[in-house]
Amino acid sequence: MNGQRTLEELRGAILNQQVGYAKVRSTPSNRYKSRKLFVLATSHNNKLLATIIEFVIDCKTMNLYAMSERQGEKLFHMNENNQVSLAYVGPAENYFRDTPGVQIVGKAQLLSGKDPGFEEGLEIYLPTIITCCLNHAYRP
Q1: Which run of H or E residues covers position 22?
Q2: How far, in whole angstroms, is CA 34 from its chain's centroid?
Q3: Euclidean distance between CA atoms 122 and 78, whole angstroms
Q4: For a designed S-S bond to 98, which of 10, 92, 128, 132 qualifies (C-beta 3.0 to 4.6 A apart)?
Q5: Rounded distance between C-alpha atoms, residue 17 and residue 14, angstroms
């Protein structure tokens, strides 16, 4: 092999990093489980912006979903220029050897309540909010 991965190998590596591929394979209903912090880079009129935002991956489609406030600058950027870049770096004991990470370049699609795909995105993202809240519930 010449150092390049097949699409299936790449998909498996991303899913393993983001949600634990074994979970996905062992439980068919486990389409999503994990929220990860990414750096989202956007641009508009030669103005760059890097924003930290949580994304959830749909393990079947490999789509990433996030929610944001309506008036955020990143949304204005993506409305005018849908080209984005995402970067994720996970914790590692040895950053020179074992750093887990992924960089993605692609097109963003902003969805609102009436858009096709909004319900599917909400179905993917909403359970992670509930799980996150339950896992971090206040305990006196």
Answers
A1: helix 21-26
A2: 9
A3: 19
A4: 92
A5: 5
What is the model's pLDDT at position 19? 57
pLDDT at 62: 81
Q: What is the pLDDT of residue 100?
A: 73
Separation between Cα atoms, residue 34 and residue 65, nearest integer Å? 11
Q: Which two tokens stand for residue 120?
A: 């599917």
Phi, then psi, of 112 in degrees rounded to 5: -120, 175
Say how many residues make up the chain: 140
pLDDT of residue 78: 93
Q: Which amino acid is at 55?
A: F
Question: Splitting the chain (140 residues) into consecutive groups of 10 residues, what average pLDDT does each group show?
Answer: 67 67 45 74 94 86 84 90 91 73 88 89 81 56
CA Rg value for the chain: 16
Q: What is the pTM of this model?
A: 0.71
Domain boundaries, the chain: 7-135
Is domain 7-135 annotated with CATH 2.30.110.10?
A: yes
User: For residue 33, what is the DSSP state?
Assistant: -
> Residue 103 corresponds to which amino acid?
Q
